[in-house]
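Tutorial handout. Part one gives the primary structure; part two gives the three-dimensional structure as tokens.
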Amino acid sequence: MAGDVKADNQPYDDINITPMLDLAYVLLVTFIIMTTASVQGVKVQPPLTQATNNLAKPQTRGITITADGQVYLDAYPVSLDQLQSSLAQYKAANPALPVVLKADAATQYDKVMAVLEIAKKLDITEIGLATKRLQ
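Part two.
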């Protein structure tokens, strides 16, 4: 039993890799979290309401209008003509196409109405207006 214990002044011959593996796992988790946190849509300040429901569905398309009037379809900037053609393609693939419209509270109302007119022309009936719940 006394032969198994090394003296205090003798060097260790083997390398302990457990701390290195712990560091590798921590770095891996950090990179995974940082990559998923960097994927975001366009930031806007939606108007406030008392009660809201989550309208997200698997094939829901999101239309965002910023305060300066820029229109985005699924986080990609589009003009109103491009929006109409893209929504027409999505509508052809899915007749019950759900759309969520998220506009900044400072957005000009005519831009929101133009997007709603495009949805009406394409006979898109499942439209949700995204708002922010009062706290």
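Part three, for discussion. The beta strands are 48-49, 61-65, 71-73, 76-78, 98-103, 126-129, 132-133. The chain has three helices and seven strands.
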